[in-house]
Amino acid sequence: VLFILNGLERLNLDFRLAGTELCCDPNEPVPPSAIVVNLLRKYLLPEASIIVTTRPSAVRRIPGKYVGRYAEICGFSDTNLQKLYFQMRLSQPGCSGEGSTGSSSGEQENLVEMLSRNLERHNQIAAACFLPSYCWLVCTTLHFLYFTRTVPPSQTLTGIYTSFLRLNFSGEVLDSTDSTNISMMKYVAKTVGKLAYEGVMSRKTCFTEDDLQQCFEVEMKTESELNLLDVFRSDVFRFFLTPCVQLGKEHTFVFTIPAMQEYLAALYVVLGEKKTLAQRVGKELSEVIGKVSEDVAVVLSIVSKVLPLRFLPVLFNLLKIFPRYFSRLSGKDRDAIAHTMAEELFKEEDYYNDDVLDQINSSILGMEGPMRHPDEAPDDEVFELFPIFMGGILSRRNRAILQQLGCSIKNLAAFEIANAMKKTVIRNSRKGLPPSELMDYLFFLHEFQNERFTAEAIRSLRTVNLSSVKMTPLKCSVLAYVMGTTCHEVEELNLTSCNLDTSSLRILFPVLLRCKALHLQLNSLGSDACKEIRDLLLHDKCVVSNLRLANNPVGEQGAQYLAEALAGNRSLTHLSLLHTTLGDRGAEVIAQHLAKNQHLQELNLGYNSLTDTAALHVVEVAKKHATLDKVHLYFNDISEDGKRELDSLRMDRDGVRALVFLTAGTDVSDYWSNILNVVQRNLPFWDRERVRQHLVLILQDLESSRRQTANPWRKAKFLRVESEVKKMLGKLQ
């Protein structure tokens, strides 16, 4: 028989004969601890084999004479085992995403190989991955961030880290012999969390022994506290902190997984280990309320000692507040009154109280840690996950898991913190954030997993600019979840150059329906994506009025789908297909379906290799259209004869304006600046040689028209436009 006794540190065994009597009869009823002690003494079932697992601090609880062999479990000492683990974990069904086939196995192997090589180069994480649980964390995070094609709305990064801690510390007490019975995770949050928080605030990731002593030992006073610290250092310390392997920093410690520093810092704050100013004021008031009467001056003098000078304007509001509560002092709990007064105080003048919840508000939007002093040397340490984790820890699911780990976050505390955050979140969202910070803001709201809070926070968000943010499936899911908490229309959604594909459009479909202006330029959206856009435009709830698809490989097939959308859509007024490789056949298809559309006002078919026939056909159809009054046809392969025919159509255009050239007969076109602005914006993305050829032709046309006119005013206009074209040519060269 083999007995496996897992977690000896949870049992308080007494090997003294006076404490535990001898027992050799398996049928004799004795307490469980007596059974274990007699098994280990080899007095009960001496033929049996026994394996005991324990934390290092409890090893000596079994006298050495009863132990035949000691072994330390070290994890993956061989990097090949790490690699095998990654390969098995990331090759599981579902890791390749939706619609994966056998053909993706090669890609999966490449990803595993890339991961292994990166770990080999990143010695610090490779050193951490000797622990199988850290390998699990790396794989789960990668799977979440990169490999899944669809992300469940309830799955969050904070949830992964919380589950990781539950995996390792569920039910663990730091020292079962200590009367406090403090959970291991609670102790870690108080000690390592403090170190992590101070590191985030001072932008540090490396910590000296002095830093550790300052955080761990400065408040240790009793023998019990010192014993707990010894147990922590022997059992848990190396799990979270490890010696730095970076050259020049050999005698410092870093967090085994960098993001764990930000998670524990967030947990430290949310658990209330860093008391807020409001709480300190509440405590002071609680102590003095029983000693004062209705003398407001006495109360003011006491509170003024607690508050900094900049709170003086707030103190005058106490004259309005205090009588309201002092009149009902008798028979009330003084702690409750103090809490209410402190809360009321900080509610009255929010402007003067930015530091009440400074640990939350200072970086709520994922800005990169605290601001550096201008004289400080720049560094590359950023802590953008800290506020995101803070929001995630407050979510109901993560609070429930942390409760199991002994880290209790009261519902009321979470509610108060959420309300304090809401003010800052809404105020900052109205300012208009840069794209990367806006994405962090959306992640924060997603991690919080509170639809009502999120809805209130983004209701005022009418313009969403995420241009140049690489929109992975995860980011698309986050955007869809956050925007899906409300039904308000979005004035503008800018997803220019965001690496979108067909699946991205599918995930974002409910959001796109509600956007009036939709910018999808520079996303490599082909015919499959155009099929999704067709379904979007034909949806009865679609409100898209301005759609920009410039610089996407739409092609002829894509044009077919867009033409079908034009025929049935009722909301679109502006459509830009600039530089979308339509060709003549694509333009012809769009022209054929244009007659069925009743709302389009502007159509851009510039830079699409259109010849005279296609261009003339489009303009002729546009002339008969009820609302279409502007068609862009510049930078196409239109001959001089075609230009003259288009010019004659322009003279008899029946309301339609064709923007083809910078000249209109012997005058400059009214839209020359529009055309040149479009060219200017797209210069980095277009074929430079072809653009140069077009600009040379435009310049020649301008010079020829200038020579034909005798009007000095017109000559001056020509010279001005020529100078702008020459500047562009200079930039290209």
From TrEMBL:
<keyword id="KW-0433">Leucine-rich repeat</keyword>
<keyword id="KW-0677">Repeat</keyword>
<dbReference type="InterPro" id="IPR048900">
    <property type="entry name" value="NLRX1_C"/>
</dbReference>
<keyword id="KW-0067">ATP-binding</keyword>
<dbReference type="Pfam" id="PF05729">
    <property type="entry name" value="NACHT"/>
</dbReference>
<dbReference type="Pfam" id="PF13516">
    <property type="entry name" value="LRR_6"/>
</dbReference>
<dbReference type="InterPro" id="IPR007111">
    <property type="entry name" value="NACHT_NTPase"/>
</dbReference>
<dbReference type="Pfam" id="PF21402">
    <property type="entry name" value="NLRX1_C"/>
</dbReference>
<dbReference type="InterPro" id="IPR051261">
    <property type="entry name" value="NLR"/>
</dbReference>
<dbReference type="GO" id="GO:0005524">
    <property type="term" value="F:ATP binding"/>
</dbReference>
<dbReference type="InterPro" id="IPR032675">
    <property type="entry name" value="LRR_dom_sf"/>
</dbReference>
<dbReference type="InterPro" id="IPR001611">
    <property type="entry name" value="Leu-rich_rpt"/>
</dbReference>
<feature type="domain" description="NACHT">
    <location>
        <begin position="1"/>
        <end position="86"/>
    </location>
</feature>
<protein>
    <submittedName>
        <fullName>NLR family member X1</fullName>
    </submittedName>
</protein>
<keyword id="KW-0547">Nucleotide-binding</keyword>
<feature type="domain" description="NLR family member X1 C-terminal">
    <location>
        <begin position="668"/>
        <end position="729"/>
    </location>
</feature>
